[in-house]
């Protein structure tokens, strides 16, 4: 699962690998579940020596809305999970769809 994140260990951000994989998986799952988008693009950038920014872009302009899931609900926890593991996250409509992103910060990197 984490094969798509090798630059993180090269940058000393090993502590973010699992959380980054979780964010990528959750954002792609949300795009697949809640949009009819035929195209989903993932971008992973390193804005500085301590942060990883994961961006998922799709062709739907409908922005995600956090929901409160009940204990027996099978869905509705994705954005709460994103909020729990990222330092910050957001969504923005674009001319061709939307961009949803999450940013993780390493405490180990210098």
Protein traits:
110 residues; alpha+beta; Heat Shock Protein 90; four-stranded antiparallel beta sheet; globular; ATP-binding
Structure characterization notes:
There is one protein chain. The protein has 110 residues and is an alpha+beta fold. It has one domain: Histidine kinase-like ATPase, C-terminal domain (Heat Shock Protein 90), CATH 3.30.565.10. Helices cover 28% and strands 30% of the residues. It has 3 helices and 4 strands. The protein has a 4-stranded antiparallel β-sheet, covered by helices on one side. β1 and β2 form a beta hairpin. α2 runs antiparallel to α3. The radius of gyration is 14 Å and the shape is globular. The model has no long low-confidence stretch (mean pLDDT 86).
Number of domains: 1
CATH top level class name: Alpha Beta
Give unreliable regions as ranges.
none
Could you give the count of β-strands? 4
CATH architectural designation: 2-Layer Sandwich
| Beta strand % | 25-35%
* CATH homology group: Histidine kinase-like ATPase, C-terminal domain
Order of the strands making up the biggest sheet: 1-2-4-3
What is the averaged pLDDT score?
86
Q: Secondary-structure element order, as H and E? A: HHEEHEE
Rg to the nearest angstrom?
14 Å
Major β-sheet annotation:
4 strands, antiparallel
Indicate the percent of residues in helices.
Answer: 25-40%
Structural class: alpha+beta
Principal-axes shape call: globular
- End-to-end Cα distance, whole Å, is 26 Å
CATH third-tier fold name: Heat Shock Protein 90
* Tally of DSSP helical segments: 3
GO molecular function, one term: ATP binding
Organism: Streptomyces polygonati
Protein name: ATP-binding protein
Keywords: ATP-binding, Kinase, Nucleotide-binding, Serine/threonine-protein kinase, Transferase
């Amino acid at each position: 699962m984490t094969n798509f994140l090798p630059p993180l260990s090269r940058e000393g951000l090993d502590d973010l690998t699992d959380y980054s994989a979780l964010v990528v998986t959750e954002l792609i799952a949300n795009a697949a579940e809640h949009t009819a988008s035929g195209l989903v693009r993932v971008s992973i950038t390193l804005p500085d020596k301590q942060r990883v920014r994961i961006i998922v872009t799709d062709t739907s302009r409908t922005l995600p809305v956090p929901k409160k899931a009940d204990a027996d609900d099978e869905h509705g926890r994705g954005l709460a999970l994103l909020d729990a593991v990222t330092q910050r996250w957001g969504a923005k409509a674009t001319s061709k769809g939307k961009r949803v992103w999450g940013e993780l910060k390493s405490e180990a990197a210098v």
